[in-house]
Amino acid sequence: MSAACVQVGRYYGLPTASNGICTDACTPDPMATLEKWANGYLPVMAGANVNGGAGSLACVGTVSLEQLVIDDDVFGHFFRHMRGIRVNEDTLAADLVAKVGPNNTFIMEEHTLANFRDEYYYSPLANRLNALAWEAAGAKDAVERATDLVHDILAAPAQPFLTEEQSREVRSLLAKAEGALANIEVRV
Questions:
Q1: Which domain holds residue 175?
Q2: Is residue 101 situated within a structural domain?
Q3: What's the pTM?
Q4: What does the alpha-carbon distance between residue 120 and residue 128 come to, in Å, rounded to a whole number?
């Protein structure tokens, strides 16, 4: 239904939103991720302008930093899928196909390596180790890896994402809003 609502909104040229990646799960576990993926994928693919729910659990009743990291990865997959695969003269590489020829391998060709890197989504949470190497590395599951990422993010120095001019404008708007609110008479 979320995807259908998004499509109706887009048909009429309206901005669209979806609660996107929501779950009834109360902890960041495989069920939470499965529900979020199942609930969020189609509205994103339908083109919703806003998709909420990142970091939320218990039907948006609580939030988890680990779940926020997991959801960031989920959205990374969604957005990579939405981008599709670039097909143009460069990516088709007809000259390279002719040079390598049938029954040969393209994997070691520089063009293949460069384009594969651009097309592939590198999940910050995925385990790429075999079972023995994974066990030797501590056998951490996705939630444990998300916890490690949360700690790394919180330990890193803050990185401003607004310019100083943008920050001044936000402070100015906030001051105006606080001034307007201060003049409102509250009746009880």
A1: 2-84+121-182
A2: no
A3: 0.79
A4: 14
Distance CA 132, CA 129 (A): 8
Count structural domains, the chain.
1
Nearest-angstrom CA–CA distance, 124 and 35: 20
CA–CA gap between residue 75 and residue 14 (Å, rounded) = 22
Asked if residue 14 belongs to a domain, the reply is yes
Write the pLDDT tens digit of every residue in 32-41: 999 999 999 9
Domain for residue 151, yes or no?
Answer: yes
Give the Å distances, CA to CA, from 77 to 47, 81, 83, 126, 167. Answer: 15, 6, 10, 12, 31
113, amino acid identity? L
Assess if residue 90 is contained within a domain.
Answer: no
Residues in CB range of 124: below 8 A, 6 or more apart? 69, 72, 73, 76, 149
Task: Tell me the pLDDT tens digit for each residue of 93-104.
Answer: 999 999 999 888
